[in-house]
Amino acid sequence: MKKQLLILALLLSGFQSIQAQFTLDGEFRPRTEYRHGYGSIFPEDAEPGFAISTRARLNAGYKTEAYNFYLSLQDVLVWGENRQIDPVDVNNSFAIFQAWADIRLGNGFSTKLGRQILSYDDQRIMGGLDWAQQGRNHDAALIRYKKDSFMFDVGLAFNQDLDNATGNVSGFVSVGNEYTEDPNFFTYKAMQYLYLKKEWKGFSASVLAMNNTFQNFVLVDGVRTYDGYGVSSLQTIGTHLQFKSGAFGLEGNAFFQTGERVNELAVKGAFLLGLDASFKVTEGIGLGAGLEVISGNDADAGETGAFFPLYGTNHKFNGFMDYFYVGNHANSIGLVDIHLSANFAFNETSSLMVKILNFKGEQELPSGDSSLGTEVDLVYSKAFKGFALKLGYSQMFANDGMYELKGVPKDEASDIQNWAWAMLVMKPKFLNGTN
User: Fold this and answer.
1) Which CATH number does the domain 24-432 belong to among 3.40.50.2000, 2.40.160.100, 3.50.50.60, 1.20.58.220?
2) 179, 301, 294, 276: which is closest to 236 by C-alpha?
């Protein structure tokens, strides 16, 4: 017992010496969802979905003059997914969400290595996807430079399984470089990108140039086979512009894609163009209006003109019901999204966001129709001492084109397409050291 107390005392003494550089915090985020048209048209004879999931995170940071280290542990728990006294998590969702070191190199340069969030500008092409309980991360190495109002990042990633092994007399050796993760959700084998940003008074401009390489495959008796089928490379290039003057704000995106999607599908003429304006009427009222056009598949057989926003926080755009570009709509008719929004701050702790979005296809459907429908999104937020509550409701007013797009006949669809959710957000700070 004395020995254990001595060890504990030494640990506490050592901890006190590093407390100035050490932070420890967490996140507890349960969310309840009622799904009756989320993601697609809901059939009349189906039962709506109702479930509760919780994201739990424990984050530790350590900071010195030479480097920063960060570790984030995460589990996503669906209530009831494990039976009582089950020793195994059936969802196997516990993971290291982030694990990186940011090393200072001097003269404004640094390098950030490991599993990390890559998020830029309005998160249209690269974002953390925080709405999804699991979030989005990348295993990457960055060379970074920042001085005054200018910065750039060079990012490099190479993904591999490391279980392509064969036995020999000396043991096991790794063979081949085929990457067997499902590429249909744009899981890349390799990535290289350059991001530059410059800020002026009231204005900023950034440029992103990115190359993604995807592993090709063929289906043999319904099973993917990767060996010897090579890779395809897709290039995404564009800019994000932001202007602010008093109560008025303006943001714009212009991105283009070329190269190849998975299995050498040629991409030609793919683009995304967006413009959003905001105006603060009073301290408590803000208005917004915007337009986004995303190209659809108008190319010949063996080619596509459809743009896909890749690794952005797609839930933030084109309606919260996620009918477009959230694991769907990847090589379809594109989208024209015209939207209006209003934000009401009732006081320092509560607010309401209202957004109306009208959708059309950038290309026509086989029937010749292109009108898809209108979505209304409502989000109420209330902050309390130490935690926050968010409530959301969305409804889709589908047009004939939406039923055709989603493959659900109108006479077989429910009359109401809606989605509601409630989320508690708690972020306790266990230790908050300062240098």
Assistant:
1) 2.40.160.100
2) 294
Close Cβ partners of 292 (under 8 Å, ≥ 6 residues apart): 253, 272, 273, 274, 275, 317, 318, 335, 336, 337, 339
Quickly list DSSP for 61-111: EEE-SSEEEEEEEEEEEETTSS-TT-SS-TT---EEEEEEEEEEEETTEEE
Could you write out the DSSP letters of every residue in 393-415?
EEEEEE-HHHHHHHT--GGGB-S
Report the half-sphere exposure of 48 (CA within 13 A, side-chain side).
13
Give the pLDDT confidence score for residue 15 in this predicted structure. 53
Report if pTM > 0.85: yes
* Rounded average pLDDT over 128-132: 97
Check: CB of residue 183 under 8 Å from CB of residue 190.
no
CB burial of 175-201 (b: ≥16 within 10 Å; e: otherwise) equals eeebbbeebeebebbbbbbebbbeeee
Q: pLDDT band at 325, cuts 50/70/90?
A: very high
Provide the token pair at 239.
Answer: 């800019």
